[in-house]
Design brief:
Shape of chain B: globular
Helix content of chain B: 25-40%
Shape of chain A: globular
CATH class of one domain in chain A: Alpha Beta
Number of helices of chain B: 21
Oligomer: heterodimer
Distance between the termini of chain B: 32 Å
Structural class of chain B: alpha/beta
Largest interface: A-B, 58 and 69 residues
Strand content of chain B: 15-25%
Strand order of the largest sheet of chain B: 11-10-12-13-15-14-21
Strand order of the largest sheet of chain A: 2-1-3-4-6-5-11-7
CATH topology of one domain in chain A: Rossmann fold
CATH superfamily of the largest domain in chain B: Pyruvate-ferredoxin oxidoreductase, PFOR, domain III
Strand content of chain A: 15-25%
Largest sheet of chain B: 7 strands, mixed
Number of domains of chain B: 3
Radius of gyration of chain A: 22 Å
Helix content of chain A: 25-40%
CATH superfamily of one domain in chain A: Thiamin diphosphate (ThDP)-binding fold, Pyr/PP domains
C-alpha cells in the first residue's frame, strides 16, 4: 500500500472550530489529526461520520470526506459507508447521548456485526448541545436541569455495553491526555473490527469537572492505570502499585507490601477472548481500584464488511448468472 | 403507450384442491364452494376422481381433485385452468401440471416432500418443481401434516384419524387467504358430523389452526393479471411486483455502472424485495438486513454517500420511521430510492391487505420544506420499469425518489415480455469530474442538481450534512440563504418534469367523464374504462405514474372532459393533492378502504351514475 506523507495541518478544514473555549473536544480533534497524519493512509479515503451533539460537529473541522447526519444514526450510516466500500477508513464521532440513548440500537448492532469502524465516543455524562440535561451515563442522583432533585436511574457503563454486544475492541482515554489518546486512537485505527474508544471528556459549561476525581490532582497517577498488552498491570505515582486477582476479583496492592511481589502482578492480555478480566477492568472504580485506561480489549474476529465481500466472491466463483440479461431469462420462459 | 391489461378479479378465481383419494379433497372442495356460494358468489365446480377407486397411495393415478371456479358475475364453467393449486403430496402436483395457469400459486404440504413420495410419484429427482418446470410459480410451503398433528396433540386420537383431518387445515388456510368466513364451514361440518361430536370438534380445531396459521404467516391473497389485448411477440416470463421492483433497481445499477446496496428490515408485504436482492450475490448486490427500519435507510444512505446506489424497501409503518433519514437525503442531496409497498393502515392496520393511503405521507410526511420525487407503479411487471426510472432519476438528479407500489402489485403476478438491457434508457450518474470547479453544492446546469463526489475520489474532499448550508457546503444560518436553498431544492424537483412523459388517455380523448387513477388500481380502472367504452359511453381514463412532479400536460388533459372522478383506495388523498395543484377543476371521488382492490363493477357503477347526474 502506498504511504502518504501528511502533517496534522493537512487534516484541518478551513472551518472555524466553534466548540466552547476550554472544551475537551479541542484536544481530541488535535489528537485525531496527528494520528491520521501519522498513519499515512490516503486522505481521500477517510470518511468521517457523526450524528448530532457537540461531538458530532467533528466532521466539519476535518479536511476529509465528512457526513454530519441525524441524531443517533451515525453507527447505521457508518455501517452503510464501510459496507459499500471496505477500502475506506471510516470513523464515527459520537457522544454519550448520541450513541447510548437515541442511537443505542444502532451502536450495539454495529458492534455485534463487527463492522470495521473506529468509534470515538465523547463521554461527558451530560447533554451539552441542549444545555444541560442528564444523559444515559449520568451518575445516579446527579442533579441537572431535568433532574433537579437528582436522577433516579442507573447509568450505562460504556464498556459493559460494548462487551454485552460482543465487542471486539474497547479502549478508554482522557481528553486532556494527548499522548495517551494518540496511542489509543492509533491502535483503534489499526484494529480490524468495530473499535470503540470512550474518551472521558469535560464539558466546561454544563458539567465541568465531572471526571476530575480521576483525571486531576497530583495523585492522579495513583487513580489511573494505563494498560498495555503484554505489560504488567502496574501504576501509581511511584509505579509501585499493581493489580492482582484474588478470590475471583481484582485487587490493588503495593509491590513489596503484605507479601506481594512483582511476580504476583497480572499481565494485561487484550487478546483474551473471555470477557472476564476485561469486564473487571472496565468496572474498576475508585477508591478500591484505579480507573482503567488504554486498550482493554482487542480480540481478532471477522469483520462484517469483509465477510460480505468474501461471500460475494465465493458465490461468484460458481455463478450461473453473470449479468442482468441472464437473470431476466433465467427460470421458466416461453415464446409468443 | 398504455398497455392493455386485465386483472382477474378475486371473484373469478379457480382453485383446485388435490391429494390422495383418501385425503378428503372432495369434502374440502365442497365445503369451500358452499362457503363461497353463501357469501353471494356464483360458483361452478368440477370434481375429478381418480379412475381407480383405490389406486396405490401417493401415486399419480391415485390423485383426486376438486376444482371450484367462483365469481360475482355469472360463472358458466368450472374454469379451464386453476389459479391456485392446493396439493397434499408430490403426486398431486405432477397430476395437475396441465391444469395450471402460468402464474398459478401452489400451496403444498411440505411434510409430504419425502424421497418415498417422490419415488411413488415417479419423480427422477428430489426437485419436483424443477422437474415440472414450475420454478417461478408462487409457492406456499406449509408443513400441513405436522401442524395438524400438533393441533390435535391433546385429543387422544389414533394417527390415522389425525391424518384424516389434514384437509381441514388446508381448508382453513385457503379460507384465510380468500377471506371466506369459517362460520359457514363450521355449520356445514356440524350437519355432516353432528352425530359424532368428537370428529366434529377435532375438524373444527384443525380448521381454525389452518386459518390462524395463514394469519400468523401473513399469507396474502394472490392476484393475477393477464394481457387483455393481443400480445406482442417475444420471450415471456411470469413476474410479481416485488421481484420486478428488486430487479428494476438491479438493472439500473448495472446500467449506471454503480454498486447496488439495499438496507432493509423485513415487513409485510415488502419483505420479498429484500429476499430477492439477497439472492443476487452473483451479481454483486450487497444487502444489509438492518436492526430496524431506520438503520435500513441509514445504511442505504451511507452507501449512497460512499458512491453506491443506496436503496431501501418498506411498507407504511416503516416509511413513517424512515422519514427523518429521507429528509437527510433531501438535505444532503444524495441519490436514494425508497420503495413503499403500501398496505392497509393506519398503524399496523391490515398488514396483508392492499391500500393506497400512504400517498400524502410520501409527499408531505416530513418536517420542513422537503420536496422529493414520488413515482407509483401500476402493474406487477411495470414495477420493474418504475424502479428503474426511480433509480435513474435518483442518480442523475441527486435526490431521494420514493416509489409507491402496494400489496396488490407486490404479490400479484403477470406474464411479462422480458426486456433487453440494451433497450433500456441510459443512466449517467452525476459524478463530479473536475476538482478545481467542484463545490459540494455547486449546480452546474439548469437541472439544479449538484454533483456527486464520494470518499476515495482524490481532491474532492468535502463535508455534507443535515444542517442548512451554503453553496460550498459550509453550515449557514443566514436567513436569506435558507430561503434561497429551500427554493432551489423545490425547483430541482420541479425540474424533473423534463424526465416525465406526457400523460396519455385511454378511451375517449375528450368527453363527459375522465376517470383518474394512480398506481396499483390501473388493472381495474382500465378494465372498467374498456367495458364502458364498449357500451359507447363518452369516458376516458388518465392513469398517473408520476405523482411529483406531475406530467406537464395534466391540466390540459383534465380540461378536455366535463367531469373528473378520482378513484383511489383511500379517502381521497390524490384528489386532495390535485385540488391543491389544479384548483380550477372539480373532482368527484370514488374511494374504497376495505383492504381490497376495486372491483370493475363498482367503478363502472360510479362512472355510469356520474354520467347520468
Amino acid at each position: 500500500m502506498t504511504t502518504f506523507t501528511y502533517t496534522a495541518k493537512d487534516f484541518k478544514s478551513e472551518n472555524e472550530v466553534r466548540w466552547c473555549p476550554g472544551c475537551g473536544d479541542h484536544a481530541i480533534l488535535n489528537a485525531v489529526q496527528r494520528v491520521m497524519a501519522d498513519l499515512g493512509y490516503n486522505k481521500a479515503d477517510y470518511a468521517i461520520v457523526s450524528g448530532i451533539g457537540c461531538s458530532s460537529r467533528f466532521p466539519y473541522y476535518m479536511n476529509t470526506y465528512g457526513f454530519h447526519t441525524i441524531h443517533g444514526r451515525g453507527s447505521a450510516i457508518a455501517t452503510g459507508v464501510k459496507t459499500a466500500n471496505p477500502r475506506l477508513q471510516v470513523w464515527q464521532f459520537t457522544g454519550d447521548g448520541d450513541a447510548l440513548a437515541i442511537g443505542g440500537n444502532h451502536f450495539i448492532h454495529m458492534i455485534r456485526r463487527n463492522v470495521d469502524v473506529n468509534v470515538i465516543l465523547f463521554n461527558n455524562k451530560i447533554y451539552g448541545l441542549t444545555k444541560g440535561q442528564y444523559s444515559p451515563t449520568t451518575d445516579r442522583g446527579f442533579r441537572t436541569k431535568t433532574s433537579p432533585f437528582g436522577t433516579v436511574e442507573d447509568p450505562f457503563v460504556t464498556g459493559q455495553l460494548v462487551l454485552g454486544a460482543r465487542g471486539t475492541f474497547f479502549a478508554r482515554s482522557i481528553d486532556g491526555n494527548m499522548k495517551m489518546s494518540q496511542e489509543i486512537f492509533r491502535d483503534a485505527a489499526l484494529f480490524k473490527g468495530t473499535s470503540v474508544v470512550e474518551v472521558l471528556q469535560n464539558c466546561v459549561i454544563f458539567n465541568s469537572g465531572v471526571h476530575e476525581f480521576v483525571t486531576k490532582g497530583d495523585d492522579r497517577e495513583d487513580k489511573q492505570i494505563f494498560l498495555r498488552h503484554g505489560e504488567k498491570m502496574i501504576y501509581g505515582v511511584n509505579q509501585d502499585k499493581g493489580l492482582v486477582l484474588e478470590n475471583g476479583k481484582l485487587k490493588a496492592v503495593t509491590i513489596g507490601q503484605d507479601g506481594y511481589t512483582l511476580d504476583d502482578i497480572l499481565v494485561h492480555d487484550d487478546k483474551e477472548e473471555s470477557i472476564y478480566l476485561h469486564a473487571a477492568l472496565i468496572n474498576a472504580q475508585l477508591p478500591e481500584l484505579p480507573v482503567a485506561f488504554g486498550v482493554i480489549r482487542a480480540v481478532d474476529s471477522p469483520t462484517y464488511d469483509e465477510a460480505l465481500e468474501a461471500q460475494i466472491s465465493e458465490v461468484q466463483q460458481t455463478r450461473k448468472i453473470t449479468c442482468m440479461d441472464e437473470l431476466l431469462h433465467s427460470g421458466n420462459t416461453w415464446e409468443v | 403507450m398504455i398497455k392493455e391489461t386485465k386483472v382477474i378479479e378475486l371473484e373469478a378465481v379457480t382453485i383446485r384442491f388435490s391429494g390422495d383419494s383418501g385425503d378428503g379433497m372432495q369434502l374440502t372442495g365442497t365445503l369451500f364452494s358452499d362457503a363461497t356460494a353463501l357469501i353471494g358468489n356464483d360458483i361452478s365446480t368440477f370434481p375429478d376422481y381418480p379412475s381407480e377407486i383405490r389406486a396405490p397411495q401417493g401415486t399419480v393415478g391415485g390423485v383426486s381433485g376438486f376444482q371450484v371456479h367462483f365469481g360475482k358475475r355469472k360463472i358458466h364453467t368450472p374454469g379451464d385452468k386453476a389459479h391456485v393449486l392446493v396439493a397434499m403430496n408430490p403426486a398431486a402436483i405432477k397430476a395437475n401440471v396441465m391444469f395450471l395457469e402460468r402464474s398459478a400459486t401452489i400451496i403444498y404440504d411440505s411434510d409430504s416432500f419425502t424421497e418415498r413420495n417422490f419415488l411413488k410419484a415417479k419423480f427422477k429427482t428430489n426437485e419436483p418443481f424443477e422437474e415440472l418446470n414450475l420454478i417461478d410459480h408462487p409457492k406456499i410451503a406449509v408443513p400441513i401434516t405436522s401442524l395438524t398433528k400438533e393441533a390435535l396433540v391433546d385429543r387422544e386420537m389414533d394417527n390415522k384419524a389425525v391424518l384424516r383431518s389434514k384437509n381441514m387445515f388446508a381448508l382453513g388456510l385457503v379460507s384465510w387467504i380468500f377471506n371466506r368466513p369459517l362460520k359457514v364451514i363450521e355449520d356445514a361440518l356440524s350437519l355432516k358430523f353432528g352425530k359424532n361430536p368428537d370428529v366434529l370438534e377435532s375438524n373444527i380445531l384443525v380448521l381454525h389452526a389452518g386459518f390462524n396459521y395463514g394469519m400468523n404467516m401473513q399469507h396474502t391473497t394472490p392476484q393475477y393479471i393477464v394481457p387483455a389485448a393481443e400480445i406482442e411477440k417475444g420471450t415471456y416470463r411470469n413476474i410479481n411486483g416485488n421481484v420486478a421492483t428488486a430487479w428494476g433497481m438491479l438493472a439500473a445499477a448495472e446500467k449506471a455502472g454503480v454498486q447496488l446496496l439495499l438496507g432493509s428490515y423485513p415487513i409485510t408485504p415488502a419483505t420479498e424485495i429484500l429476499q430477492a436482492l439477497s439472492e443476487r450475490k452473483d451479481l454483486g448486490v450487497k444487502t444489509i438486513q438492518a436492526e430496524d427500519e431506520i438503520a435500513g435507510i441509514c445504511s442505504a444512505l451511507g452507501a449512497s454517500f460512499a458512491g453506491s446506489l443506496g436503496v431501501t424497501s418498506t411498507s407504511g409503518p416503516g416509511l413513517a420511521l424512515k422519514s427523518e433519514a429521507i429528509n437527510l437525503a433531501v438535505m444532503a442531496e444524495l441519490p436514494l430510492v425508497v420503495v413503499d409497498v403500501q398496505r392497509g393502515g393506519p398503524s399496523t392496520g391490515l398488514p396483508t391487505k392492499t391500500e393506497q393511503a400512504d400517498l400524502l405521507q410520501a409527499l408531505w410526511g416530513r418536517n420542513g420544506e422537503s420536496p422529493l420525487v414520488v413515482i407509483a407503479a401500476s402493474t406487477p411487471s411495470d414495477c420493474f420499469d418504475y424502479a428503474y426510472i426511480a433509480s435513474k432519476i435518483a442518480l442523475e438528479r441527486m435526490t431521494p425518489v420514493l416509489l409507491l407500489t402496494d400489496g396488490f402489485l407486490g404479490n400479484g403476478s403477470e406474464p411479462w415480455k422480458i426486456p433487453s438491457m440494451a433497450d433500456l434508457q441510459k443512466i449517467t450518474p452525476r459524478i463530479a469530474k473536475n476538482q478545481e470547479e467542484f463545490k459540494a453544492y455547486r449546480r452546474p446546469d439548469d437541472s439544479l442538481a449538484r454533483e456527486w463526489a464520494f470518499p476515495g475520489m482524490e481532491g474532492f474532499e468535502h463535508r455534507i450534512g443535515g444542517l442548512e448550508k451554503d453553496e460550498m457546503g459550509n453550515v449557514s444560518h443566514d436567513p436569506s440563504n435558507h430561503q434561497e436553498m429551500c427554493e432551489i431544492r423545490a425547483k430541482k424537483i420541479e425540474n424533473v418534469v423534463d424526465m416525465v412523459p406526457d400523460l396519455e388517455t385511454y378511451g375517449c380523448p375528450e368527453g363527459d367523464v375522465l376517470i383518474v387513477g394512480w398506481g396499483g388500481t390501473f388493472g381495474h380502472l382500465i378494465s372498467a374504462a374498456r367495458d364502458l367504452c364498449a357500451e359507447k359511453k363518452p369516458v376516458g381514463l388518465a392513469h398517473f405514474n408520476y405523482i411529483n412532479p406531475l406530467p406537464a400536460n395534466t391540466a390540459e388533459v383534465f380540461s378536455r372532459y366535463k367531469k373528473i372522478i378520482v378513484c383511489e383506495l383511500n379517502l381521497g388523498q390524490f384528489a386532495t393533492y390535485l385540488r391543491s395543484k389544479f384548483p380550477q377543476f372539480t373532482y368527484h371521488q370514488h374511494n374504497k378502504v376495505q383492504g381490497l382492490p376495486f372491483s370493475v363493477g363498482e367503478i363502472m357503477e360510479s362512472v355510469t351514475k356520474l354520467l347520468e347526474d
